[in-house]
Design a protein that fits this description.
By secondary structure, the protein is mainly α. The chain contains three helices and no strands.
């Protein structure tokens, strides 16, 4: 995994877990706290898509970062 993606996950989980913490996020400064019920995750680059991108780049004579 790429370090940026790891950090994005880390801070997203901190925000999700802490959203309802009135001590961490005082209402006077941030507005009313609320507890999110779900956290969605979208992995846009699955293996079939990555392979297709790799093959398309090579077919056009371009360098692929996925090789």
């Amino acid at each position: 995994p790429h370090p940026d993606h790891i950090m994005t996950h880390t801070i997203s989980m901190i925000a999700f877990d802490g959203a309802a913490d009135a001590e961490a996020f005082p209402e006077a400064e941030f507005g009313p706290v609320w507890e999110p019920q779900k956290l969605y995750y979208n992995q846009g680059f699955n293996r079939p898509r990555t392979v297709a991108l790799h093959e398309a780049l090579l077919a056009r004579g371009l360098e692929s970062p996925y090789g």
